[in-house]
Amino acid sequence: MANNEESRGLKSLLDWFANRRKSGTISLERQEREIADGLWHKCSKCGVLAYTKDLKANQMVCVECGHHNRVDSDERIRQLIDQNTWRPMDEHLRPTDPLQFRDRKPYSDRLREMQEKIGLIDAVKTGLGQINGLPVALGVMDFRFMGGSMGSVVGEKLTRMIEQATQGRYPVIIVCTSGGARMQEGMLSLMQMAKISAALQRHRDAKLLYIPILTHPTTGGVTASFAMLGDIILAEPKATIGFAGRRVIEQTIREKLPEEFQTAEDLLKHGFVDEIVPRTQLKNTLAQLIALHQPVPTAPHMVLWESMSLSSTVAE
Predict the structure, then answer these.
(1) Cβ-contact 260, 240 below 8 angstroms
(2) Which string of DSSP letters, residue by residue, matches 245-305?
């Protein structure tokens, strides 16, 4: 009799554990389904789950550890540009395949797949807008499009934007994120480095402001050209910034590189970056820098004094 009761009790206990394990599996599946549906976001650094709407309200920066999640060009424009002031430029420019390049698939097919999947024509958006009421010319690279690689369209759009800014006397801001030059366009891609740099030099000759913002990652030909030509160079925390990759450098010098190598913090320490600005403070920081570099208006009494001085000089 006692053995039967014990066996029934043991069976009930096993059933309870089985039901608990089953309910736990359902909860896990439900949690994974909710994450997949975009309701929740798991931080890749600290693993904390955050409500996606709250994360977007904090500009995709983890409230727990401060990790800066990658954002696309549309989101970046919304974060920086005042509402209803954005005027896109050169949206009609489309990449071509002048070299008829082919690796595992033709370059033309890669372009078409990217354009259909992401909804972008190429890896950069350019336009004019306002930051806290101050006019700017803004270019934003998008890493989703072939790793933000710099092809002919990227170079042409950025060059046209800089030339328009020089003509209109606007400051230029470029948000950089790229794997470097686009190998499928060969030398044509490398030429964009010189073309953009030349446009920036003319912009500087006109005594106008240029601020690049280095985000994760900024590498290759972009780093070797316009990303490092700013009057004031800003970077996001923990962004990877460099030319060649860590593995290539280690194999070349046959030494192990420190963990902080090619981070924004390391570049700040060595003088390659002027300031590291968290994304939540970036818009106000840019507005302050632009306001400080606005042309000083000439006071009426200064104009009068200059005209009097000129008149006396002529009389002499």
Answers:
(1) no
(2) -HHHHHHHHTSPPPTTTTBHHHHHHTTS-SEE--HHHHHHHHHHHHHHTSPPPPPHHHHHH
Residue at 253 is within a domain = yes
Q: Are residues 24 and 147 in the same domain?
A: no
State percent of the chain over pLDDT 70.
81
Same domain, 22 and 105: no
Q: Of 142, 161, 148, 150, which Cα lies nearest the Cα of 199?
A: 161
> How far is residue 93's CA from residue 96's CA, in Å, rounded to a whole number?
10
Q: Quick one: how far is CA 307 from the chain centroid?
A: 48
**What pTM was estimated for this model as a whole?**
0.82
What tokens appear for 6 in the block?
């014990």
DSSP secondary-structure letter at 228? Answer: G
- pLDDT, tens only, 224-272: 999 999 999 999 999 999 999 889 999 999 999 998 999 999 999 999 9
For residue 237, give both structure tokens: 């925390």
Q: Are residues 26 and 168 in the same domain?
A: no
Segment 107-133 mean pLDDT = 96
Domain count, the chain: 2
Beta strands 40-42; 49-51: pairing state = antiparallel
Q: pLDDT digits over 158-214, tens only? A: 999 999 999 999 999 999 999 999 999 999 999 999 999 999 999 999 999 999 999
Q: What is the pLDDT of residue 21?
A: 59
The secondary structure element, H or E, covering residue 223 is helix 220-223
Q: Are 165 and 208 in contact (CB under 8 A)?
A: yes
